[in-house]
């Protein structure tokens, strides 16, 4: 929402404000409020960017975890098949020994 605001809307013409501030202390307070507002807008934009980055990283980690689970299942099955083959070989060797 705030990021849609135009930079020109967010910035103040400092020379005009400085002149006005000399005549009007309310203008000085208004300038300070705009500065605070700009700082808050920057913080909100940073938090929004961080949220998006963390969401993307989380999704990548979830995908990697699913891939690892699938690979682990394949390795487990391969080990079980190898053990069955070795057990059969050992049984055969004992029978013919």
Uncertain parts? 1-5
Shape: rod-shaped
Indicate the proportion of strand residues. under 5%
Total beta strands: 0
Radius of gyration: 33 Å
Helix content: over 70%
Structural class: mainly alpha
Give the domain tally.
Answer: 1
- N-to-C SSE string, H for helix and E for strand: HHH
Distance between the termini: 81 Å
User: Main sheet, how many strands, which sense, barrel?
Assistant: none
Number of helices: 3
Oligomerization status of the protein chains: single chain
Please state the average pLDDT score: 84
Task: Explain the overall architecture.
By secondary structure, this protein is mostly helical. It has one domain (2-95). The chain contains three helices and no strands. The chain has helices spanning 7-10, 14-23, 25-95. Helix 2 (14-23) packs across helix 3 (25-95). The longest helix has 71 residues, at 25-95.
Q: What topology does this entry show?
A:
Elements: H1 7-10, H2 14-23, H3 25-95
Helix pairs in contact: 2-3
Labels describing this entry:
97 residues, 3 helices
